[in-house]
Design a protein that fits this description.
The protein is α/β, with parallel strands linked by helices and 532 residues long. The model has no long low-confidence stretch (mean pLDDT 93). It has three domains: 356 residues, no CATH class; 47 residues, no CATH class; 100 residues, STAS domain (Transcription Regulator spoIIAA, 2-Layer Sandwich), CATH 3.30.750.24. It is 61% helix and 8% strand. Strands 3, 4, 5, 6, 7, 8 and 9 form a seven-stranded mixed β-sheet that branches. It starts with 7 loop residues before the first helix and ends with a strand. The chain contains 22 helices and nine strands.
Length: 532
C-alpha cells in the first residue's frame, strides 16, 4: 500500500474512519502501559510519576508529531539502566552539606537536564537526516546491548522482588549480592513477587478466552493489591507505589548547572545514541508487522522523539522511545493509525487524575516481577542460541558487548562490540581501505535493469554509503547486487539487503543478490556473513 504522509488531513481522516478501533486498542495498551510506566520509573531510580508523565507525553504529543503509524511511545526498560546510571553519577557530584533528600532531588533535576539535552540532540539528528544511522550498528552489538540491559534490570529488580535493598552500587556487586538477598528475603514481599511471576509466565498459556482478555500486567495488579492489603503493606509504605495527590505536584524542573561536565556530556551521548537507535529499530520492526505495509519516516521519528524528550524532561518525566512490545500489542489489538497511541496517553492521564488512590496501593514487588520478566526476555538463553546459529563470530561480539556493558558502561560496551567486529572482519580479509567507504559501480544494462557491482567489501561500517546509493535507484525496476568481486559481505549487510529486497519488491520492482557462489558462508544461517 502506498504511504499516506502523516499530515493534519491524514490524522483527521483517520480519526473519522478508525476511531473505534484505535480507541479500543489504545485503552487495552494503556492497561498494559500503566504498571510498566510505574515499574520503569522505579528501575530508573525516579519517582513513579516520572514514568507516567513520559507515557502521557509519549501518547498525547508524539502520536501527532511522529513519523511512524502504529508505534506506542513512552518509557522503556532499555533506557532505565542509563537513567539509573545518571542518577547515581550525579549523586556523586552533589555539593557537600546536602541532606539525602536534597541529594536525590539534585540528581533527579540534573538527570532531567540530560534528558532535555538528549532531546535537542535528537532534533538535530532529525534535521541532519540521521535516520539512516540505524543501518550502521551491527545486529550482534545491538542485541548484545539489549541483553546486557536485560541482565542488569533482572539483577537489580531481583532484590526489590525479595524486599531487600543491597548496599552494593556497582552492577557486578549487585549481581554478586543476589545470594545474600535470598538469605534475607522478606517472605510477604517474596510471595507477592512469586505469584506475580507465575501470572506473567502462565498467562500466555491460558486457553480461557475471557481470562485472555485481561492483559497480564493488569492481572498482576488485580491480584497483588489484595495481597498487599492481606499482608498489611500499607503500614510500611516503602513497599508500595508512591504518587502525589495532584498531578502538578509530580512536576519537577531540570537543573542545568552541571550540563557541561564530562559526566553529563557522556550521559547525553549515551541517552541520545540508545534512545534514537531503539526507536528507529522499533519503528522498522513495527513497519514489518503493519498489515497495510506502511513505511515510517525515520528522520521525522528522530525529530519527534527529540521534541517529546524535551517536553517530558521539562515536566519531570523519563526519556521516551518507541517501545516494541507495546507497539506489537497495539497491532494485535486492531490499531489502525497513530490515534491508538494518542488514546493510550489519554487513558493514562485519566488514570492518574482519577485513580491515584488505587495506583498507590500497588506493591512495588509486583512491578519488580514485571521488570524481571522484561529483563529475562531481553537476555533469554534463546537469544544466545540464536546468535550462535548466525555465526560463532557473532556470538563472540554479542558476549563481548554484554561483558563490557555490565563491567564498565553502555557506551563502552557498544564501542567494544564494534571494535571487536571490525577486528574479526580484518582477520576475515576485509581490506582496510573499504572499512568505512563502499566501492561500487552502478551500470544500467537496459531500460529496466540496474546492476550494482560491489568491490572489496560490504560490511556494517560502510553500509550507510552503500544504502544511500541503492536508495537513489528508481522504483519499479530490476535491481541486481553482484558480490562476485567482494572479499567479504557481513551478516548485518545481508540482513539489511533482505529488508530492502522485501520493500522494493512490494513496490513492484525486482531485487536480486548474485555473485556469492564462490563465497564461504560463516554459518548455516541464511543471512550469515560470506567471505571469498
Amino acid at each position: 500500500m502506498t504511504n499516506q504522509k502523516i499530515s493534519i488531513s491524514y490524522l483527521s481522516n483517520s480519526l473519522k474512519t478508525h476511531w473505534k478501533a484505535d480507541l479500543s486498542a489504545g485503552f487495552i495498551i494503556s492497561l498494559i502501559a500503566l504498571p510498566l510506566c510505574l515499574g520503569i520509573a522505579m528501575a530508573s531510580g525516579l519517582p513513579p510519576m516520572a514514568g507516567l508523565i513520559a507515557g502521557i507525553v509519549g501518547g498525547l504529543f508524539l502520536s501527532l508529531t511522529g513519523g511512524s503509524y502504529l508505534t506506542i511511545n513512552g518509557p522503556a526498560a532499555g533506557l532505565a539502566v542509563i537513567v539509573l546510571t545518571s542518577i547515581e553519577g550525579f549523586k556523586q557530584l552533589a555539593p557537600a552539606g546536602l541532606t539525602p533528600e536534597q541529594i536525590e532531588l539534585f540528581a533527579y533535576q540534573n538527570t532531567l537536564a540530560v534528558g532535555l539535552a538528549c532531546g535537542v540532540l535528537q532534533i538535530l539528528f532529525g534535521f541532519a537526516k540521521a535516520g539512516i544511522l540505524s543501518s550502521f550498528f551491527p545486529s550482534s552489538v545491538v542485541h548484545g546491548m539489549l541483553a546486557a540491559i536485560g541482565i542488569m534490570i533482572f539483577s537489580k529488580q531481583f532484590h526489590v522482588a525479595l524486599g531487600v535493598k543491597p548496599e552494593a552500587k556497582e552492577m557486578l556487586e549487585i549481581i554478586a549480592a543476589i545470594p545474600s538477598s535470598i538469605m534475607h528475603l522478606n517472605p510477604h514481599i517474596a510471595i507477592i513477587s512469586l505469584i506475580s511471576l507465575i501470572i506473567l509466565i502462565g498467562h500466555p498459556h491460558v486457553k480461557n478466552k475471557y481470562i485472555k482478555l485481561i492483559p497480564a500486567p493488569l492481572a498482576v495488579i488485580i491480584i497483588a493489591i489484595p495481597l498487599g492489603h492481606y499482608f498489611n503493606l500499607e503500614s510500611e509504605t516503602k513497599y508500595l507505589v508512591s504518587v502525589p495527590e495532584r498531578i502538578s505536584d509530580g512536576i519537577v524542573l531540570p537543573d542545568f548547572s552541571n550540563i557541561f561536565t564530562p559526566f553529563a556530556i557522556q550521559m547525553i551521548v549515551t541517552y541520545s545514541l540508545v534512545a534514537s537507535l531503539e526507536s528507529l529499530l522499533t519503528a522498522a520492526a513495527i513497519d514489518r508487522l503493519d498489515p497495510e505495509k506502511r513505511t515510517s519516516d525515520f528522520n521525522r521519528e528522530l525529530f519527534s522523539k527529540g521534541a517529546g524528550n524535551i517536553l517530558s524532561s521539562f515536566l519531570g518525566g523519563l526519556p521516551i522511545i518507541a517501545e516494541v512490545v507495546r507497539s506489537s500489542a497495539n497491532i494485535n489489538n486492531g490499531a489502525k493509525s497513530p490515534w491508538a497511541n494518542f488514546f493510550h496517553g489519554l487513558f493514562l492521564l485519566i488514570f492518574v487524575v482519577f485513580l491515584g488512590g488505587i495506583i498507590h496501593q500497588i506493591p512495588l514487588s509486583a512491578l519488580a516481577a514485571m521488570l524481571m520478566v522484561t529483563g529475562y526476555r531481553l537476555a533469554s538463553p534463546q537469544s544466545f542460541i540464536q546468535t550462535y546459529r548466525i555465526g560463532k563470530e557473532q556470538l563472540a561480539i554479542f558476549i563481548a558487548t554484554i561483558i563490557f556493558t555490565i563491567a564498565v558502561d553502555l557506551l563502552v560496551g557498544i564501542l567494544a562490540g564494534i571494535v571487536i567486529k571490525l577486528l574479526i572482519h580484518v582477520f576475515n580479509g576485509l581490506p582496510i581501505k573499504s572499512i568505512f567507504k563502499p566501492f561500487l559501480t552502478i551500470n544500467k544494462t537496459n531500460d529496466d535493469t540496474y546492476r550494482v557491482e560491489v568491490l572489496y567489501s560490504a560490511v556494517f561500517s560502510n553500509f550507510i554509503g552503500f544504502k544511500k546509493q541503492l536508495m537513489s535507484l528508481p522504483k519499479g525496476k530490476n535491481i541486481e547486487i553482484n558480490f562476485e568481486n567482494a572479499m567479504l559481505v557481513d551478516h548485518s549487510v545481508m540482513e539489511n539487503l533482505q529488508e530492502i529486497k522485501i520493500k522494493y519488491e512490494e513496490a513492484g520492482g525486482s531485487f536480486k543478490i548474485i555473485g556469492l557462489e564462490n563465497h564461504k558462508s560463516l554459518s548455516p544461517y541464511k543471512s550469515s556473513g560470506r567471505k571469498k
